[in-house]
Amino acid sequence: MEKKIKVLQVIPKLGYGGAETGCYDLAHYLHENDCKSYIVTSGGELTKYIKKDKVTLIRLPVHSKNPILIFLNFLIISILIIFLNITIVHARSRAPAWSCLWATKITGRKFITTFHGTYNFSSFIKKFYNSSMVRSDLVIAGSNFIFSHINENYPEFFLDDRRKMRVIFRGINTEYYDSMAVDNLKVISLRRKWKLKEEDNIILMPGRLTTWKGQEVFIEAINILNSIEIEKSFVAVILGSDQGRKVYYKKLQSLVDKHRLSKKIIFVSSCENMPAAYKLANVVVSASIEPEAFGRVSVEAQSMRIPIIATDLGGSKETIVNEKTGFLVKSKDPKILAENLKNVLNLDNNLLQSIGLEGRKNVLTKFDVEKMCKATLAEYKKILI
Predict the structure, then answer these.
(1) Pairing of strands 283-286, 201-206
(2) How far apart are alpha carbons 52 and 302 in whole angstroms?
(3) SS3 of 252, please?
């Protein structure tokens, strides 16, 4: 009889980001596939949705970069590994990865990391700190772009053993992100809540408010679009939390005021029903000025059969089939973004339907959460052989 796999996933916080939802989905999938599933996290909005009969939630300050807390987390995680007889520890961020690395070393358990982003470094110290993510028995990259990034920037930490890297595309819940499953009353309610007129076409830009997500470029593009004569009226919605970046939020508001766009652009800090938000939209934008590790917004929009315009950087180039499931544009160029917005808003219904169907098909084929979870469990089993 096979020994039951017991997986301890460690993540700083369980919010609504790609890394967090991936952790959440995998945790429940493991239970459904006869594995014991544990999550160590400091908290977060998504914790209230964890099914406690399927996943055991353990709270520790694993979000902290404080060396003392990292050491204390190492001690506690080591005790948990022994007490719960954990088989595999799977870390999803740098600070907790250090705690997990030491804990798995002294307990002799398998250690896996998922590299969710392009961690910047300008010194050897910062690079060394980042290297916790590539010191595991298996490194999972969420896209080919991330795979290349790791190979180019961290080869010295692999000791010439590249076999321990795998690409597993991140996946989304395509049953949740399905326009056919969204209650139209919730879409109407959201339109009213955001005070949007029935006749307005909605341009949606989801994503946390941070410089590299390109909100400034987006606002400049909306200003250009507003000066172009187009048949359809529109309103742009910037949807995302500033996460404490108050100065940046005020800068965006000032830019809106400067261009007198207060009636054309609204800010929404959060939305618990993202499928309804996507269904409300006529077009979705991802204007990142730095490479997306995966590009979850682009995948969610395609799954919802909504046209997506994204910059041709990083993971977005892998998730969008240009001019078939969406549109890739040059980054940092508001003029080109405005032109593409104009073109999409003027597309006829047959073309829009075709883009929507192809986008949905693309996601179902490559980026479904079931495929991601199945591939990850397969790697768990391989590493234990």
Answers:
(1) parallel
(2) 32
(3) helix
Domain that holds residue 340: 179-366
How far apart are alpha carbons 37 and 329 in whole angstroms?
A: 41
Please provide residue 289's backbone torsions phi and psi, each rounded to the nearest 5 degrees.
Answer: -100, -5
* One domain, residues 302 and 205: yes
**Helix residue ranges, H only, the chain:** 18-32, 67-84, 94-107, 124-130, 144-153, 184-193, 215-227, 246-258, 274-280, 296-303, 316-319, 334-345, 349-366, 369-383
Are 163 and 301 found together in one domain? no
- Count of structural domains within the chain: 2
Beta strands 88-91 and 56-59: pairing type? unpaired
Q: Which amino acid is at 248?
A: Y
Q: In CATH, what number is assigned to the domain containing residue 189?
A: 3.40.50.2000
Beta bridge pairs of residue 235: 202
Phi, psi angle pair for 222, to nearest 5°: -65, -35
Single-letter amino acid, residue 288 = S
Q: How far is CA 255 from CA 54, 203, 205, 272, 333, in A?
A: 47, 18, 16, 27, 16
Identify the band that residue 2 occupies on the pLDDT scale cut at 50, 70 and 90.
Answer: low
Give the residue from 179, 176, 175, 197 showing the smallest Cα distance to 188. 197
Nearest to 87 by CA among 34, 129, 41, 18: 34
Q: In the numeric block, which tokens belong to residue 57? A: 């939630």
C-alpha distance from residue 221 to each of 59, 215, 268, 334, 346 (Å): 43, 10, 19, 4, 16
Q: Do residue 220 and residue 158 come from a single domain?
A: no
147 and 167 Cβ atoms separated by less than 8 Å: yes
SS3 305: coil
Distance CA 37, CA 245 (A): 35
CA dist., res. 19 & res. 119, Å (int): 14
Per-residue pLDDT tens for 155-179? 887 655 555 889 999 899 999 999 9
230 in the same domain as 342: yes
Dump pLDDT digits (tens) for 267-279.
999 898 999 999 9
Asked whether residue 120 falls in the same domain as residue 252, the answer is no
Of the candidates 257, 208, 198, 259, the residue with the CA atom closest to the CA atom of residue 232: 198
